Amino acid sequence: xxxxxxxxxxxxxxxxxxxxxxxxxxxxxxxxxxxxxxxxxxxxxxxxxxxxxxxxxxxxxxxxxxxxxxxxxxxxxxxxxxxxxxxxxxxxxxxxxxxxxxxxxxxxxxxxxxxxxxxxxxxxxxxxxxxxxxxxxxxxxxxxxxxxxxxxxxxxxxxxxxxxxxxxxxxxxxxxxxxxxxxxxxxxxxxxxxxxxxxxxxxxxxxxxxxxxxxxxxxxxxxxxxxxxxxxxxxxxxxxxxxxxxxxxxxxxxxxxxxx
Amino acid sequence: xxxxxxxxxxxxxxxxxxxxxxxxxxxxxxxxxxxxxxxxxxxxxxxxxxxxxxxxxxxxxxxxxxxxxxxxxxxxxxxxxxxxxxxxxxxxxxxxxxxxxxxxxxxxxxxxxxxxxxxxxxxxxxxxxxxxxxxxxxxxxxxxxxxxxxxxxxxxxxxxxxxxxxxxxxxxxxxxxxxxxxxxxxxxxxxxxxxxxxxxxxxxxxxxxxxxxxxxxxxxxxxxxxxxxxxxxxxxxxxxxxxxxxxxxxxxxxxxxxxxxxxxx
Lengths: 260, 265
Ligand SMILES: Nc1ncnc2c1ncn2[C@@H]1O[C@H](COP(=O)(O)OP(=O)(O)O)[C@@H](O)[C@H]1O
Ligand SMILES: [Mg+2]
What we know:
- The complex is a heterodimer of chains A (260) and B (265).
- Chain A has 260 residues and is an all-alpha fold.
- Chain A has helices at 12-35, 47-60, 63-94, 96-109, 118-125, 129-153, 157-165, 171-206, 213-222, 226-254, 256-259.
- Chain A has a single domain, classed as Orthogonal Bundle (MetI-like fold), CATH 1.10.3720.10.
- Chain B is 38% helix and 23% strand.
- In chain B, strands 6-7-8-3-9-10 form a six-stranded mixed β-sheet, with helices on both faces. A four-stranded antiparallel β-sheet of chain B has the order 2-1-4-5, covered by helices on one side.
- In chain B, strand 7 (157-161), helix 6 and strand 8 (189-194) form a beta-alpha-beta unit.
- The N and C termini of chain B lie far apart (46 Å).
- At the A-B interface, helix 7, helix 8 and helix 11 of A face strand 6 and helix 3 of B.
- Residues 13, 22, 24, 42, 44-50, 213 of chain B line the site of adenosine-5'-diphosphate.
């Protein structure tokens, strides 16, 4: 049995074991570096201290509320972006004139860094929720539009032709061929973009926020509490992983013909 | 009156980026009678698909026109059912819903859709696979479904572009008999493209032989084998004689195509 045969699949158990093994090794290296005195606690808290900080965060500082606020911002900004990007991307993918109209502007906008908009957005929308949602929106919407347009525009022409010979035409080609063919890939693009939304929300919360995981991390820096900072980062990672797994499971259930 | 008339249809593809244009099809004339089973035989690249796609309305000729029941063809439509060489089932639909695709477009009531689908599921040997997705089917089963999907629409003419080309020999022989059985029963008008000589003879009432590129009709050969046809006929002397004749015609074309390729390079 050779594990290093190219493209040879591994069993689900081994897959899980290998995945967990890396986390274990990672924490072990972290523990060795901190408990062994290689890195001073001022720069990097040890694993136990981090867990302790996490406990106090939840019990004394109401961290659960920050987590909830951050989740709501991510989901809100993401839904806002998806609500605009998916229909527009579909229209661009299906109609070449619509694509010609929007594509240059969207391609340009996609290179504008969302974080650079934060000062401007604070000016326009204040430091409230609207500004946080807008950062995520700006960060995700242009990328998502282009991804959806490419997916829809890449519909297999032989399927479209088959539909024509079966009597479908005009909008029916879109609703009966292009949309169902593109749906699973659009869902996968949304999953990817949700991941990015998590990075934008933290950036948005580092500046001008009074709640959220990012705000907590900023506060901890002032107190030089690396335990809290690391705990906040780990929490983001865990929530991201959970949401990704759930999203993936939902996609697989919705589109069994594509994923199985 | 002919069911289908192909009148001087020619197709030239414009050359890409300054390259010379490709003449895929020389002006072609063909009259297809109602209930005829025509096979179009020719070396690959001779314009068979191009001709069939023009009849389907998926491509437009640069010269000439196609008439179906006296009406000029201007675009694709459900009166011309098509089965493609590549697998073109809708992967998100089950076998049954693939077969019903055209019926939904026509607005056929659900109950009637079910009856029609059941009829063709039985006829093409798809019983027990109704709820499978295309991905779960073998190539042969996929092409059965594609055939049932085209037939369910009750087209005036059935167009098949090397539909069994990707199948193994045993499956292909089975599919040929299946198609002939359906044709003998329902008397559809069929235009069937192939580069397989045996297939062309076994299925056809007339074989249209095309020349190498640019394609042109070289000869039309009537196949007088009796019906119902069974695979044992493929070893009969009449079949062998036809095969020898067509092999010679095609061989000459393949050699000509090879020489042309060699001359160009
Ligand atoms: N869309 C196209 N653009 C340019 N050339 C094409 C196109 N489609 C077909 N051809 C050319 O026309 C010729 C005939 O093609 P085709 O009809 O597919 O042949 P066959 O089906 O007999 O193998 C080929 O030389 C092919 O390269
Ligand atoms: Mg072809």
